Amino acid sequence: MGLRGEWRAVQEAYRKIAEVYERANKVATFGNVDRWRREAVTLFLSLNGKTPLKVLDAGAGPGNMAAHLKTERYVVALDATPEMLRPNAIADDRVVGMFEYMPFRSGCFDLLLAGYSLHAATDIEKAVAEFSRVAEFQVVVSIGNPNNRFVRRLLRLYARYLLPRLVCLVAPPEVCREYGKIYTIITSIPPNSKLREIVEKYSSIIIFREKGLGSVYIYISRSKIA
Ligand SMILES: C[S@@+](CC[C@H](N)C(=O)[O-])C[C@H]1O[C@@H](n2cnc3c(N)ncnc32)[C@H](O)[C@@H]1O
């Protein structure tokens, strides 16, 4: 399948899950999904003296990342799936577009947020490069791939057999099937150490933390070209 075909399959998945999205996430992460978003955003705010004014929420969906910014700000929500953007009442502007080809000028945002979206990029390095090009700071929370082989195997077993069944407790069968695709995602993304190297090519990492045994990572970085 080419790039376009692959992306269509991912987009189709997001269309199906939009309605029960956060409920399913809570079950899949044992209640941690929003705690990790909040941790990333509040950590950034506590480290950075200045309040970010112009914010890009990349892969914003319903706006669950930007919701943790309680200060006065202007937020643009970017997402490739209009169905995921539709319920977003947090953003001041909503833009349908791809990470890999951001329709924004370089350095035009103070802060880029990306919650549980980078792992889905068709080209992770291109997305990371674009994140750094358009914003001075990046705060990213994403599904990761643990470095430790034993933990990686455990996570794959969880994603393949248990996660879709847990999601079935709160969502219809077609949605459970879509969550089953997380297994395919984690088998195709780079290990967290490699992801860190990619990020370091384009920005200076301020914080890199793993959560849930490395199944999720949080990073805060500052663009090298800012
Ligand atoms: C799992 S949702 C995350 C929504 C929200 N940020 C959150 O914290 O829950 C991932 C979103 O990223 C979007 N997305 C994934 N890959 C993308 C890409 N390459 N370009 C733009 N949006 C993308 C999807 O359409 C989806 O709405």
UniProtKB/TrEMBL annotation:
Alphabetical UniProt keywords: Methyltransferase, Transferase
Pfam families found in the cross-reference section: Ubie_methyltran
One Gene Ontology term from the biological process aspect of the record: methylation
Family annotation (InterPro entries): SAM-dependent_MTases_sf
GO molecular function: methyltransferase activity
Signal peptide per UniProt: none
Keyword Transferase: yes
Protein name stated in the entry: Methyltransferase type 11
PANTHER family named in the record: 2-METHOXY-6-POLYPRENYL-1,4-BENZOQUINOL METHYLASE, MITOCHONDRIAL, METHYLTRANSFERASE
